[in-house]
Each structure stands twice: as structure tokens, then as C-alpha cells.
Amino acid sequence: RQLCIIIPVLNEANSLPSVLAELQAVPEIEVIVVDGGSRDETVEVARSFGACVISTPPGRAHQMNAGAAIATADTLLFLHADTR
Q: Do 84 and 12 contact (CB within 8 A), yes or no?
């Protein structure tokens, strides 16, 4: 895979489905959702779309670094769940 999209999240169960649905239409990408301790259904939502999910302490920079550390693609794109 040439592109990995890393999505740092915290309580994004409402906004995450639409972005993950759009990403499913893009072939050959790696999607990593990095949860910072959500107390809603964020992790379950991400897994239901087939995303790789990891958990870290909260903090966007920490979450993005953790996602980048496990990415296997050549190019990384950091995307927030509420960005279109």
C-alpha cells in the first residue's frame, strides 16, 4: 500500500462513520484509527468499518506519532474525523 490514513480520535462515534464510509471507496489504502480513550462507541465503529484500531493516552500529537509508528505505507495522511 502506498497511502496510510491515520485518524486520531476521542469520542468521535458520531462523526467517524461518514469519513470511514468514504475511505472504504478508496482502493489500496491503509486506515489506522488511534483512539485516545473514548468513552463512547468510537472503537466499535472504527472496527466495524475494518480499520486498524490502536489505543493510546489522549493527545493528538501522541496519537498521530503512535499511528505513524505502525503504518506500513510509504505516504502518511493525518485526517481528523470531522474533516471532509
A: no
Query: What pTM did the predictor assign?
Result: 0.95
> Tens of pLDDT along 17-48?
999 999 999 989 999 999 999 999 999 999 99
Cβ neighbours of residue 21 closer than 8 Å, sequence gap 6 or more: 49
**Alpha-carbon gap, residue 66 to 14, rounded angstroms:** 23
- CA dihedral of residues 53, 36, 48, 77 (deg, nearest 10): -60
11 closest CA partner among 62, 83, 81: 81
